[in-house]
Amino acid sequence: MKISKILSLSLMGAVAAISIAGCSGANVHAQMRVVDSFDMETKCVELDMRDQSEMDEVLKTMAGWRVFYISEYTTDNKIGTDGSMCFERKRQ
Predict the structure, then answer these.
(1) Distance CA 30, CA 77 (A)
(2) 3-state secondary structure of 40
(3) What's the order of all strands across the beta sheet hosting 81-90?
(4) Given Cys at both, which of 5, 64, 77, 86 links 44, Cβ 3.0 to 4.6 Å?
(5) Is 77 helix (H, G, I), strand (E, B) or coil?
(6) What does pTM read for this prediction?
(7) Which of 87, 61, 53, 84 minimizes the C-alpha distance to 71?
(8) Strand, helix or coil at 66?
């Protein structure tokens, strides 16, 4: 009986904290692919998708690489958008 009361209070506390903080669920999208060649090298970077200058700098430094994976993590309240980008090229 005590355990269910503790769980109930914990759940209500969590709901209250989330409601007060204004957090919302995440929209997570990802795409994976099958590796077709082992002579490729890969590099992944994390970046703030809201910062155009950061994205431009990453893309500039990765000239000659091909984007093969992008993942974006954002919430409905649009407080932040983080992303991961992975690039590949023939091993040199």
Answers:
(1) 20
(2) strand
(3) 26-29, 66-75, 81-90, 40-48
(4) 86
(5) coil
(6) 0.56
(7) 84
(8) strand
Read off the pLDDT band of 70 (50, 70, 90): confident
Rounded CA-CA distance 43/41 in Å is 7
- pLDDT (tens digit per residue) in 13-61: 555 555 555 555 555 555 566 666 678 888 999 888 888 898 899 999 9
One-letter amino acid of 34:
V
Of 82, 83, 81, 78, whose CA–CA distance to 24 is shortest?
A: 78
Domain extents in the chain: 25-90
Cross-strand partners of 87: 43, 67
Q: With beta carbons less than 8 A apart as the criterion, state whether 72 and 55 touch.
A: no
Q: Residue 88 and residue 49: Cα distance in Å, rounded?
A: 20
